[in-house]
Amino acid sequence: MHLSFEFFPPKNDIGAAAFATTLRNLEALRPDFVSVTCGAGGSSTKTTYDTVQHIRNTTALHVVPHIAYIRQSFTQMTRLLGDYKNLGVQQIVALRGDPATVKNEPELPPGETYPNTVDFVLDLKTRHGFDPIVSAYPDVHPLALSPQQDLDHLKRKAEAGATHAITQFFFTADTFLRFRDKMRIAGINVALTPGILPIHNLTQVLKFATSCGAKIPEGFTSRFERHGTDQNALFEEGVAHATELCQTLRREGVEDFHFYTLNRGAMTARVCGALKLNPPS
Ligand code: FAD
User: Fold this and answer.
1) What is the DSSP string of 243-254?
2) How far is the CA of 218 from the centre of ligand 1 (A)?
3) Beta-strand relationship, 191-193 and 195-196
């Protein structure tokens, strides 16, 4: 059983205080690693680095930074990777990144960064000596030309040196299990970890889902909407949904779980507790 938690760099002092509490509470669950997201632009590369450094300095956790190459020139990337090497980082979540996440930043001209994620993964592995973790999309990436092309692309990332993929979040266990079957049939043998998003805020999650292509099952929203504004009931529903999802996946042999915590630990901790995942020693 492997457990990992994803965080984002806190945006201000209030966020930093909340993050410190979340980190302390979730560290007690002894995750295999925690990861820290990045924006696609250089501006947030520093906040990701600072958060990674903070986690390394204040906890015993194994920490994995995300790097989106899309707006990093080769020069910036080499410096960043050197900084991470000096911190003792060994694994990187290697991503393209979304151009829209940082507004008003000019695109880099062709030739100044990697042309695609496959080349980035290859370079991280062979030239820089990192262990790249990559993304996978059970509901198909919205920009993919077809489900097959998406799968072929994942295969190429695996052939370039990725040994582990974490999925985008999804709503039903079936979505993940069908994707896992397709991967195996396609001969993609990387470890596949489901990305679990406990639902704290339905409106926000539906917005995420629309932008990243996660398909919302018919009738799904009513399970939350029926609670109106009752925050306790909504919290319990979020716990119940994520727990059911993980329980079904476990029955199908899934042993690793990556939680998108959104820097909020309580719901993730409840789900891990219900599943008896790495109880505090
Ligand atoms: P790739 O593996 O490069 O591509 C996935 C699919 O999309 C392929 O089929 C590819 O052909 C297609 N595709 C991608 N881009 C294009 C394009 N421009 N034109 C045509 N087809 C395209 N984003 C962040 O900014 N920061 C993060 O920290 C971050 N963390 C993530 C963590 C996980 C586990 C996941 C699943 C996603 C994360 N993302 C993050 C989102 C990710 O950057 C976006 O989904 C991005 O659009 C694709 O990057 P990728 O490396 O996942 O895609």
Assistant:
1) HHHHHHHHHTT-
2) 26
3) unpaired
The β-bridge partners of 224 are none
DSSP class of residue 113 equals S
pLDDT in tens, 39-55: 866 668 999 999 999 99
Atom of ligand 1 nearest to the CA of 39: 25
Cα 217–chain centre separation: 21
Predicted model pTM: 0.96
pLDDT for res 102:
47
Q: How far apart are CA 76 and CA 46, in angstroms?
A: 11
For 95, residues 6+ apart whose C-beta sits below 8 A from its C-beta are 66, 67, 68, 69, 117, 134, 135
- What ranges make up the beta strands (E) of 17-138? 33-36, 63-68, 91-95, 131-136
The binding-site residues of ligand 1, defined as CB within 6 angstroms of any ligand atom, are: 37-40, 66, 68, 93, 95-98, 101, 117, 135, 141, 143-144, 149-150, 153, 166, 168, 195
Give the distance (Å) from ligand 1 centre to CA of residue 98: 7
CA distances from 215 to 9, 142, 189, 252 (A): 27, 11, 25, 21
For residue 167, the one-letter residue type is T
What the block records as the tokens of 207 is: 């917005």
Q: Which of 8, 36, 118, 141 to mutate to test the pocket of ligand 1 (most atoms within 8 A of CB)?
A: 141
Cα separations in angstroms, 244 against 41, 172, 173, 249: 36, 9, 9, 9
Is the pLDDT at 269 greater than 60? The verdict is yes
